[in-house]
Design goal:
mainly alpha, rod-shaped, 1 helix
């Protein structure tokens, strides 16, 4: 991703592309923001499923041990 945003082959930050006019010091922030949003978007549906299925599972397990 950083190569798309102006990272040089030497590893140093070059000028940013014309389609994203930001200061070169903000490139790591933008890359981190995009990766955070992407990971949240991928994990959130699974987390919702687990959250909704967990209480039902716990009630069934707890119900079998009630004396």
């Amino acid at each position: 991703m950083r190569h798309l945003l102006g990272r040089l082959p030497s590893g140093e930050q070059g000028p940013t592309p014309a389609w994203l006019p930001i200061h070169p010091s903000l490139v790591p922030f933008v890359c981190g923001s995009l990766s955070g949003v992407t990971s949240w978007g991928l994990i959130y549906p699974m987390d919702v499923y687990v959250t909704h299925s967990l209480p039902r599972t716990r009630e069934v397990i707890m119900g079998t041990f009630v004396v």
